[in-house]
Amino acid sequence: MTSRAEPTVSKEYVESQGRRRLFLRSWRPDGMRAVVAFVHEPGSDGARYEGIARTLAMQDIASYAVDLDGWSGSPVSRVREPTLARYLADIRTMTACVRQRHPTRPLYGFGHGTGALAVCCHALLHPTELDGIIGEAILLDPPWRAAIFRQCRRLGPVFRVPRMALVRADRRLRMAVGALSLPLLLLHGSEDVMAPPSGSEYLHRYAGSGDKTLQMFEDCDHDLINGRCYALVREKVCQWIEGQLGAGARRRIGIEYINE
Prior knowledge:
The protein is of the alpha/beta class. It is 33% helix and 23% strand. It has one domain: Rossmann fold, CATH 3.40.50.1820.
């Protein structure tokens, strides 16, 4: 099933925890079979999902993308250092908004880098709010690196990613990874130097889901949905969602190595 009409594109502000204003984009086709909620990593914003949102709309799948606290369209909060709690509150605001507007449609969380880590943590806290998770280049630090940043907090500002928020999310996910039971699609580039592929491999191995797929894109880097192999990545995402929506969808566990 495909939709030929252009989706309705909206930009609005919604209120998150502590009366913080969050910028929310959406792309909604006339026929709507499912919704994808996108979560960017720090340093980016919801605009990066424009291309894949339009691709999904052609399959009658709507998209929502929030600008997390302090990034792009969402005003900087009074507390300058990002926290995991605020990111999770922002994700909850977006998913609650989607559930209120489209209560009967399946909802899939899609996160990039640290955003994928936050989506997984959200799913652990609210396991019934999502129907599946798509993780693009999830950033899971090796345990030894997380230990270093717990002991040397002053190193955090040196790095682009808010390290202490990441360390807390990393620790939370590793402690409860077996409870992550939602259908899971993990996407990773083999040449990703910002988020080692070992993060997706770890999650695929230890997540408790009985339906989990890892797709490793050879010779691709951190930005999969807009990078050199974007068309193939978007196609794979559409195929996975289509499989989830199909009657009597087959549950599977597997790893795919994909070349263009």
